[in-house]
Design a protein that fits this description.
- 46% of the residues lie in helices and 14% in strands.
- The protein is an alpha/beta fold.
- The chain has a single domain, classed as Protein-Tyrosine Phosphatase, Chain A (Alpha-Beta Complex).
- Helix 6 runs antiparallel to helix 8 and helix 7 crosses helix 8.
- It is globular, with a radius of gyration of 16 Å.
Length: 183
């Protein structure tokens, strides 16, 4: 099972509790820059230590699966579609899928709301296209299936219902990326 979570502004204890209640055994950090000025306990080294103490493995995949860098572009490309086409991205997804075959892992980024984060709009989208089962762990302790996120994206898009679902969903994801990036 693949889950996602945003560290948001949680104290580290609450964050670990959310992971544990979700059955998470490993965290895959998908932040391009695995640090937080406002919440230093989510810096890569400190987070890895806190998770290890809780019996949760940690791996950083932000170089391949990271979203926007400080310049506002996906790593060396101009869109998430281009980022997802990179061999490094595909290989990292392969590693995620392989690990998830026998471990409950959780993709982690900073944003609280799944639809406001590349972990959904870039990474979970491509995992779902591969048939992966995905759940989003929310700040209030509830779980949102990825299918519900996609339904919300479709509802927001106001898309023409005569197109096929895959086309509508691709358009909705692309529109969400543009909205997130202020385009």
């Amino acid at each position: 099972m693949i889950k996602t979570i945003g560290h948001s502004n949680h104290p580290i204890g609450r964050f670990v509790d959310l992971l544990k209640s979700g059955g998470v055994e490993a965290v895959v950090d998908v932040r391009s820059t695995p640090y937080s000025r406002r919440f230093p306990h989510f810096g890569r080294e400190r987070l890895q230590k806190s998770l290890a103490e809780a019996g949760i493995d940690y791996r950083w995949e932000g170089e391949a699966l990271g979203g926007l860098n400080e310049g506002g572009m996906a790593k060396g490309v101009s869109s998430y579609t281009q980022a997802a086409a990179r061999s490094e991205f595909k290989q990292a997804l392969d590693r995620v899928v392989e690990t998830a075959s026998d471990t409950t892992l959780c993709l982690m980024c900073a944003e609280k709301e799944p639809m406001d984060c590349h972990r959904t709009v870039l990474v979970s989208r491509r995992l779902a296209e591969r048939g992966a089962a995905i759940e989003h762990l929310l700040a209030d302790g509830t779980v949102r299936p990825h299918a519900k996120v996609e339904e919300a994206l479709l509802a927001r898009s106001g898309a023409d219902l005569f197109d096929d679902r895959a086309t509508l969903l691709a358009q909705a994801y692309d529109a969400r990326e543009r909205a997130m990036r202020g385009m």
